[in-house]
Design brief:
6 helices, 4-stranded parallel sheet, alpha/beta, about 45% helix
Length: about 130
């Protein structure tokens, strides 16, 4: 499932229904974050559905129990990516607003919990440490 929201909400059900392996986005992203050398705090940004599901928090608690996890929904980023507004003042302002809580206390890793978000990745003022998945 190449969608974080669908993976977060439907993957457990689909794994019960189908006899074949069904792979989602959450586990690979969490494994990538867990493999980073420093992971005291991990940020997650995603759609409202992905963040509300708690899937990343649950998986990160299992994979990196000592890490502090903070998730922020960033729903407008999907529309901005789909518009192709990757290099736009509006996009920069929206990203700055969404990521403001991370500027006060920057996470060691940031999971881009939506397949649209990497299109906008370069717009962040500090993208080092991003768990690319």
């Amino acid at each position: 499932m190449a969608c974080n929201t669908a993976s977060s909400l439907a993957l457990p059900v689909l794994r019960k229904i189908y006899k074949i392996p069904v792979v989602g986005m959450v586990d690979p992203c969490v494994r990538r974050a867990a493999a980073l050398p420093v992971k005291r705090s991990i940020g997650v940004i995603g759609t409202l559905g992905t963040v509300r599901s708690g899937a990343y928090e649950e998986a990160l608690r299992s994979a990196v129990p000592a890490a502090r996890v903070r998730s922020i929904p960033c729903p407008l980023l999907v529309a901005l990516a789909e518009e192709g507004w990757s290099d736009n003042a509006i996009t920069s302002a929206v990203i700055a607003e969404y990521l403001a809580p991370f500027r006060e206390e920057a996470p060691d890793a940031l999971i881009l919990g939506c397949t649209h978000y990497p299109v906008l990745k370069g717009r962040s003022a500090n993208s080092s440490g991003t768990a690319r998945c």
